[in-house]
Every structure is written in structure tokens, then in C-alpha cells.
Amino acid sequence: MKGLPSYHTLVVMVENKPGVLARVTGLFARREFNIHSLAVAPTDDERISRITIVADTVSTPVEQIVNQLNKLINVVKIDELAPEASVEQELLMATVSTASAGGRGQVLELCQIFDAKVLDTGSTEMMVRLAGSPRKLDDFEELLRPMGIVAIQRTGRVALPRLDRTPTPGSLRAVV
């Protein structure tokens, strides 16, 4: 497995206006902050977009990144999501060579083990998709690599805080 750099997941709520993403990424470029992954989408409020940034915090402390982001006028709110307090998911699509003896069977077996889906098949290649935790995708990718990855694309992480599991009065009822 690759080295384990220190990453932090930041959720940045921004005004949904042209140029905001360019300003956020421009800040990272100017300050030489490294972005590991970036995912952007509108929220249920059409005036706000959600940017999920996974940033390398070995070279730059997360506090410094947050302070710089807070200076941008279009930033509404910033939350840091600790791995243990959030659910992180990612999507991987890969085209894998199946030309070797048993190649197709090996890919199908891995897909079954990881609950991946075959998206397309050709005479010597298969395209597969897997959604899950970044760790699960890392493991899947590592096992596909010896088979011959022809092309691969990962979306980057999206994350939400874990739900509160503390029971509130009246929330638990007897099941009959």
C-alpha cells in the first residue's frame, strides 16, 4: 500500500455563484496547499454549493487552510470532518485487461468479492465500477493492478457527518 500521508476532509459551504470554485482552488494554488481530492455539488438550497476538499495536512496545518478559506467572501461555512465522525464514499471506474488466461474470471471474482459492477465488456477488456470507502477502493485497485489496468478514474471523496446514535426519550419503541 502507498505511504500514509495525513489528510483532512473539509466541507466548505459556498455561495453558488460563477467563479467561486476558481477562487477556492486559486487560494490552494497560491498558498501551495495540496488538494488530494475535490468534489463539488449544489445543495438543497440553490443559493449554496457544497465543496468537499480532502487536503494534505503534512505540509500545511489544517488550521491554516481553514483560516485562509474563511477570508474568501463567498465562503459561508467550513466544517472539518474527522474520519471517525463521518462517512466517506468514493466512486472508482476502471477498464481492466482480460486478455490473459482466466483474466475475465479473475475480474468477475474480484467484482463479486467487492460488490463491484461490470459496466461494459469487450473482447479483451472489462469496465468495472465500485463505490465505497476510500480504503475499500484502494484495496480493489491494488488487486486489479496486476491484471493490467488500462484506464482508471476515481471521483474523489464525498462525506457527511455520522448520524447521532444516542437514543432520545420516546425514540425507542418495543417491537411486537
Task: Describe the protein.
Strand 6 and strand 7 (125-132) form a beta hairpin. The chain is an alpha+beta fold and 176 residues long. The termini are far apart. It has helices spanning 20-30, 62-70, 103-114, 134-148; strands spanning 7-15, 35-42, 48-56, 75-81, 86-97, 117-121, 125-132, 149-154, 158-161. The model has no long low-confidence stretch (mean pLDDT 90). It folds into two domains: 7-81, ACT domain (Alpha-Beta Plaits), CATH 3.30.70.260; 87-160, Alpha-Beta Plaits. 27% of the residues lie in helices and 39% in strands.
Could you provide a short overview of the structure?
The protein has 176 residues and is an alpha+beta fold. The protein contains four helices and nine strands; from the N terminus they run βαββαββαββαββ. It has two domains: 75 residues, ACT domain (Alpha-Beta Plaits); 74 residues, 2-Layer Sandwich (Alpha-Beta Plaits).
